[in-house]
Amino acid sequence: MQYFREILFLIGSAKRKVPFLIIIFFTTSIFDLIGLGIIGPYLNIIINQSRFFESSFAKYIIELGFPKEPQELLIIMSIGLVLVFLFKSVLTILNQWLILRFAMDKKIELQLLLMKMYQNLPFVIHLERNKSEYIQNIHNKANYFTQGVLVSLLNLFCSSIIILVIVVFLA
Q: Which of 100, 105, 88, 89 has its CA nearest to residue 154?
């Protein structure tokens, strides 16, 4: 628990951006669920068309105004499946971009904070150590937190939400 408190402390004011990320994560997981839900009926119409039209799903989509002809319905479902997975891919790319942008913004803030801290050290301490050590510390510590901790944690959280939504709707 202390570890998460430290992460939240280091994130600082950027905590207010996290709910937006969570909304995007849930949106992506819903499209993952829709994609998984469409695959079954799509395969069913390909494998056994007569049995498909006896199902409650087929009756429901025909009531919605979809065609009764198997070939026409197969074309529409194929287009729908491609569009859902295309949109899901765009959302996944957006997720990764938002995670990396969030982390890189935080990295810049941490590097500036560390630079100010090193600049405010007494002059005697600067004489004892090489300047390259400070530069290396600024780069490595900020990079370790953003790449090693923050990006990994956000990716884990995103994947967990996707798994949770799929498991809840499959149960």
A: 100
